[in-house]
Amino acid sequence: MLKSNDTDKPYLLHHLIIHGVLAVAFLMVGWLFPAQYRTLHTDALAQASVVEGQTLEEFRDHLGAGTDPLSAAPLLDLAAKQLEQPAPLPEKLSPLPIAPALDSYFAPARQREIANHPSSQSELVKRLLALKSQAPNYAAAITLAARLQANGQFHQDLNLQLHRLGQEANADELREAMHAFSLLASRLTEPQLGRLMRHTESPLTLMRLAKIAKLQTLVPPFDTFNEVDENGKSDDLIIADELIGTPFHHLFGHTVERNAQGQPIRWDADGNGELTREEWTALPFIPLEFTEFPAVYAASVWSGQPEAVTRYLMSHGRPGTRWLQDAMRQGRGAMKLVLAQQLPVSDRAGLGLDSAAAFSLRHPSWALFVKFLLLGLGCIILMRAWNSFFTVSATGANAVRDFILRRRAMACALFLALVALGEPIFLQPAQSSEYTVSINLPVLSEDENPTPTPETNNAMLATTNIVLNTILFVAFAAIQIFVYLTCKSKVEEVRHGAGDPLLKLRLLENEDNLFDMGLYIGIAGTALTLAIKMLLPQFGISLSVAYASNIFGILCVALVKIHHVRGARQQLIMEAEATPGTQTH
Predict the structure, then answer these.
(1) Which residues contact 513 (CB under 8 A, 6 or more apart)?
(2) Highest mean pLDDT among 119-128, 403-412, 432-441
(3) DSSP string for residues in 302-350
């Protein structure tokens, strides 16, 4: 409010209460509104599940549980149990009977039997069997694929693309695809593999599925858990206590697979409670019940879109697995929404209103606009409440204009801060997917200090969070605009205030600390941003943005002191010289 002769007028308190209540209401509703930038809100997912609410258990029952323990149903049942909240402990999960689909197809007799079977006389099956000439080392995998095709469990588009790869002079991609198929066939039973292959449309999706399965079931290095004594010597034994707190601490004596006679093969083969290096390295892969792969398999089969599932995980990595599981808990509709939009899932609380969630689901862009509008209005009204609490003096039209600009700049900075803190996407690591890295380590270059290339420079730029850096840049600028206008108003207030020129000069000298405030705030902003960059590098904050705060502070102080303070002092000195009876020092 502008300065009045009677500063105790009751309307100031009245404005403070009204504006304060309105500001809190707008900010709370805007903060909790179920819409977020490039992020799916949990309320929207819940609303999507209302539209299509089939659960994973219902889907499993729809397929038919069956009596065969090697069918797809046990793996789907395991995935459903892993999705429970709280999740059951690993020792409470029933181990999956493992009969790898590929094992029985290595025998030449089995391969001849499949080739001569009446169901293998179709053109689609023959086309697959003909690939053996291009990839003879994968004859067993090709025979298994032909068997699935004969049973109608192999996608025709995948069949066609494999055939095209086999016709090319360079069949490396064909061998890569069949290697990926072999990897999946070594972890899944034939019915489980067939249920997955009927939805897999391309070799790229097949290779992505295999890569995800391999990374999720990869056996960690032995030395990761083997303790070393103070002399740096290893006993080459892993005991149960050394695995406590890891996903593998229940594996002693746990069934991993069954041999040809149907007898269980255990990790701890001799049952002495210790794992030797030989026992550890002999493990083919982590049992599926101790990994996240059952959820990936269930999502691929349940949605019928393995391509969308693999693309989502390749984009978001292991956090994407958790987000996908969160959607699967809510139902088929939520899972399909996540796969369709390929966006992260927020864990923020919402308003809890079905109408707001439905609006956000149908019109996500307009819902985000409403959220930002509410936050913006809340910030503006909050600034009015703040100004109602303090008496603000204005000596003219310029001072009133500067006061309005200051309020807008501060409201803008507050709004940007709330947006940065309220959007989870800004706090997510850039390029964080673990599934995009190569499993095999590349050979190190002899040049320890390679020259940066345009490709490496682009990769470094990709790790920066452009939107978050833009918000910080604009916020720092808005804060310095507020400081600049504050200092400018103070200079005008002293110049046009009461008193002789010498008194005004002394008052200006007394405000030197205020005129340096832009530099103090700029240094503080740079120090804080650099600290966040060092402690939380996954936010992707750029050094340029960190130093921008200090640069803005320097420009603000230079403009205030050189343009305004210097000009005001010069004018006051001239007035003092022109006034009889005054003497400047």
Answers:
(1) none
(2) 119-128
(3) HHS-HHHHHHHHHHHHHHHHHHHHHHHHH-HHHHHHHHHHT--B-----
Q: Where are the alpha helices (DSSP H) in 106-155?
A: 108-116, 123-129, 139-150
Taking residue 343's Cβ as centre, other Cβ atoms within 10 Å add up to 19
Burial (0-12, 13-18, 19+ Cβ within 10 Å), 476: buried
Angle at 367 between CA 365 and CA 371, to 5 degrees: 115
Sign of the C-alpha dihedral computed for residues 324, 326, 328 and 330 taken in this order: negative
Amino acid at site 338: V
Cβ atoms of 3 and 399 closer than 8 Å: no
Q: Which residue, 210, 207, 191, 195, is CA-closest to 101?
A: 191
**Rounded CA gap, 422 and 348, in Å?**
9
The answer to whether 79 and 57 have CB atoms below 8 angstroms apart is: no
C-alpha 71/C-alpha 56 separation (Å) is 16
Rounded mean pLDDT of 306-334?
A: 90
Closest C-alpha among 352, 382, 475, 384 to residue 421: 475
Distance separating alpha carbons of residues 574 and 584, to the nearest angstrom: 10
Give dist(CA 213, CA 201) in Å, integer: 18
Beta-bridge mates of residue 257: 265
Q: How far apart are CA 160 and CA 155, in angstroms?
A: 9
Q: For residue 316, what are the contacts with CB-CB under 8 A and spacing of at least 6? A: 323, 344, 432, 433
SS3 label, residue 227: coil
The region of weakest confidence among 70-84, 217-231, 275-289, 313-327 is: 217-231
How does pLDDT run across 118-171, given as a tens digit for each residue?
888 888 888 888 888 888 888 999 999 999 999 889 999 998 998 888 887 667
What DSSP string runs through 437-497? S-SSPPPPPS-SSPPP-HHHHHHHHHTS-HHHHHHHHHHHHHHHHHHHHHHHHHHHHHHTS
Degrees (nearest 5) of the Cα angle 180, 183, 187?
Answer: 145
Among residues 582, 437, 434, the alpha carbon closest in space to that of 499 is found at 582
Domain segments of the chain as ranges: 42-98+291-345, 103-216, 223-284, 393-438+458-578
List the beta bridge partners of residue 201.
none
Q: What's the CA gap between 65 and 269, in Å, rounded?
A: 32
Pairing of strands 237-239, 274-276: antiparallel
Residues 6+ apart with CB under 8 A from 382: 19, 20, 23, 27, 411, 414
The 10 Å CB-count burial string (b at 16+, else e) for 175-193 is: bbbbbbbbbbbbbbbbbbb
Measuring CA to CA, which residue among 468, 461, 457, 458 is closest to residue 546? 468
Q: Say how far apart CA 523 and CA 103 lie, in whole Å.
A: 66
Nearest to 162 by CA among 205, 115, 202, 119: 202
Q: Which of 8-22, 24-38, 248-262, 493-507 has the lowest mean pLDDT?
A: 248-262
The 10 Å CB-count burial string (b at 16+, else e) for 46-68 is bbbbeeeeebbeebbeeeeeeee
DSSP symbol at 394: -
Alpha carbons within 13 angstroms on the beta-carbon side of residue 579 total 14
